[in-house]
From TrEMBL:
Keywords: Cell cycle, Cell division, Cell membrane, Cytoplasm, GTP-binding, Hydrolase, Membrane, Nucleotide-binding, Receptor. The keyword GTP-binding applies. Its main location: membrane. GTP binds at residues 123-130, 205-209, 269-272. It is found in: Cell membrane; Cytoplasm. Involved in targeting and insertion of nascent membrane proteins into the cytoplasmic membrane. Acts as a receptor for the complex formed by the signal recognition particle (SRP) and the ribosome-nascent chain (RNC). The lineage of its organism: Bacteria, Pseudomonadati, Bacteroidota, Flavobacteriia, Flavobacteriales. It comes from the Bacteria. PANTHER family: SIGNAL RECOGNITION PARTICLE RECEPTOR SUBUNIT ALPHA. It catalyses: GTP + H2O = GDP + phosphate + H(+). InterPro entries: AAA+_ATPase (IPR003593), P-loop_NTPase (IPR027417), Signal_recog_particl_SRP54_hlx (IPR013822), SR_rcpt_FtsY (IPR004390), SRP/SRP_N (IPR036225), SRP54_GTPase_dom (IPR000897), SRP54_N_sf (IPR042101). It comes from Aquimarina atlantica. This is Signal recognition particle receptor FtsY. Pfam families: SRP54, SRP54_N.
Amino acid sequence: MGLFKKIFSSEKKETLDKGLEKSKTNFFSKLSKAVAGKSKVDDDVLDDLEEILVTSDVGVKTTIKIIERIENRVARDKYLGTDELNQILREEIAGLLSETNVGEATDFEIPKNKKPYVMMVVGVNGVGKTTTIGKLAYQLKKKGLKVVLGAADTFRAAAIDQLQVWADRVDIPIIKQDMGSDPASVAFDTLQSGVNQDADVIIIDTAGRLHNKVNLMNELTKVKRVMQKVIDDAPHDVLLVLDGSTGQNAFEQAKQFTAATEVTSLAVTKLDGTAKGGVVIGISDQFKIPVKYIGVGEGIEDLQIFNKYEFVDSFFK
């Protein structure tokens, strides 16, 4: 398969390889035990592989699809050696993701026909939402775009302060009000300010509370409705940030948020500190929403564009 074309620079690929080291080591230590003393991919090996994929947080539904693809390959090729299993996994998982993916990003870019381009960022507290916003703002500014931030997570003083730190670090304007202010009011002010400043991109941080779906839906719907008084088709992107280190919990959060609001893209963070990197494969497969960004380190450059082929290549290398 000609799927694994070089897209990242060697430096970025190195960062991705390093960021997935724990996940990769965990996976291959289990796989090597499963195939020890076996030369052929048979039913026993496939049963073990199924268990390994599930315990690596790939998710049950995606694991079943992967195993079916490998079973079909075994049936077609008649004989597959266990020494080929790694390459087969890379090819079949990349093939699976290429079937289900929608609108994959190739760069930190925004549509040219929307100005300002409005992004609303959602996700529970502690997933790395504000850090993702800061790093994304840095990447967009680096491309010569004028960015404005809006601190609409007004339920925690720490959230406003943290976003201010990132705004100072990246040297971009931030619109904020006091803690406890109406989030929709902050969003309204941010969009007006962005329009007045001729901004290219406006990024709105929202409250990170996963309360019941009805409250969450009402809150986010209100923020959207107020935004549309300034820019009638805002927001143009609703980015859900998920913590990859929480494994299956990230799936649950994705289900809750996609049920509560129209999520259009995903970011999966904290992959460098966890052995649960397989969650990205499952999330990319199961939610028909593109994974746009992944966090593979703490540095300001360590938010990367998610490319499924580069990711699978690093995971199964």
